[in-house]
């Protein structure tokens, strides 16, 4: 049965462990807190599937006793020195697949619809429901059970799995403190994500209609008539009936609000929709005032 834990207590404990978490040394956070965290818990579940229950149990004990040192997390791998009883530390590297470009493209496209992702990433914070957003795009943020996880070390196979499990526990602790580290592990840094999201949002504004389309009169200009042939009609104004009808230029309504994306504020009615209604009413009232003004 899963034990309920106060969220503030988890955050407080995690913040006190920031300097140690994921850098080696003893595991500071209780295993239950790691398993209840959305990203860290999913990571542990996947690593248990790959390494086995016995290896994870040994790895937990090794991590709690401080036998994991010099942890490194990079694109597609985590690495650390892990010691067993009776022998010194040996380097073990756990490799995980990085996400392919189509998967990242789907995720970036989904994030571009919400301004909250760029804002949170720029602050170094994890956006809410990040794991669920990836799943909605049919992409696993955390390596799944069906993905290949490799172990590279000079230790025997049984020992290799145990050492890899110890590294997995320390990485889980780091993911509680720094959930966005999983993005780098899967192939994209936070700064890269911010840049890609901004580019996608800019592309959306440039596709189809524009907020204020550029003036283009090239197709409407007629060839100039020689002055000698138009002297008699030069001062004669054409009647309004002779002027070709022109449709008003089309533009995206509420373009600025659309660019900002959906509001991160919760409520029964979307804030952006409320602002659109207010802008429309203010515009109608302004037009009515201008039409009623005799001057």
Question: What labels would you give this structure?
Answer:
disordered N terminus; alpha+beta
Tell me what you see in this structure.
The structure is a single chain. With 295 residues, the protein is α+β, with helices and mostly antiparallel strands. The protein has a domain at 7-201. It has helices at 7-16, 31-36, 38-51, 53-64, 101-111, 115-122, 130-136, 157-177, 181-185, 190-206, 255-260, 271-292; strands at 68-74, 77-83, 89-95, 150-153. A four-stranded antiparallel beta sheet has the order 1-2-3-4. Strand 1 and strand 2 (77-83) form a beta hairpin. The chain starts with 6 loop residues before the first helix and ends with a helix. Residues 1-22 and 208-215 have low confidence and may be disordered.
Q: Measured on Cα atoms, how large is the radius of gyration? A: 30 Å
Give helix and strand order, one letter per element, not per position: HHHHEEEHHHEHHHHH
Query: What assembly state would you assign to the polypeptide chains in this entry?
Result: single chain
Beta-sheet strand percentage? 5-15%
Query: Structural class from helices and strands?
Result: alpha+beta
């Amino acid at each position: 049965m899963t034990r309920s834990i106060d969220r503030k207590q988890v955050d407080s404990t995690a913040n006190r462990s920031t300097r140690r978490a994921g850098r080696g040394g003893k595991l500071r956070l209780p295993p239950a807190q790691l398993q209840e965290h959305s990203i860290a818990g999913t990571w542990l579940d996947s690593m248990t599937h790959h390494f086995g229950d016995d290896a994870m149990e040994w790895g937990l004990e090794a991590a709690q006793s401080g036998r994991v040192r010099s942890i490194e997390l990079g694109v597609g791998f985590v690495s650390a020195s892990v010691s067993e009883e009776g022998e010194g530390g040996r380097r073990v590297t756990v490799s995980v697949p990085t996400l392919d470009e189509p998967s990242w493209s789907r995720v970036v496209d989904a994030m571009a619809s919400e301004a909250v992702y760029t804002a949170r990433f720029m602050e170094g914070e994890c956006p809410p429901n990040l794991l669920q957003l990836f799943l909605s795009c049919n992409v696993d943020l955390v390596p799944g059970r069906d993905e290949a996880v490799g172990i590279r070390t000079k230790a025997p196979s049984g020992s290799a799995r145990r050492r890899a499990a110890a590294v997995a526990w320390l990485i889980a602790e780091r993911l509680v403190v720094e959930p966005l580290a999983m993005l780098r592990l899967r192939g994209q840094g936070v700064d890269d994500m911010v840049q890609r999201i901004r580019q996608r949002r800019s592309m959306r504004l440039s596709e189809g209609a524009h907020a204020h389309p550029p003036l283009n009169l090239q197709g409407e200009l007629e060839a100039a008539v020689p002055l000698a042939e138009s002297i008699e009609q030069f001062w004669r104004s054409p009647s309004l009936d002779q002027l070709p009808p022109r449709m008003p230029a089309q533009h995206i309504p509420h373009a600025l609000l659309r660019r900002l994306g959906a509001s991160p504020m919760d409520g029964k009615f979307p804030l952006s929709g409320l602002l659109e209604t207010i802008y429309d009413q203010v515009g109608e009232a302004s037009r009515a005032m201008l039409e009623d003004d005799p001057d």
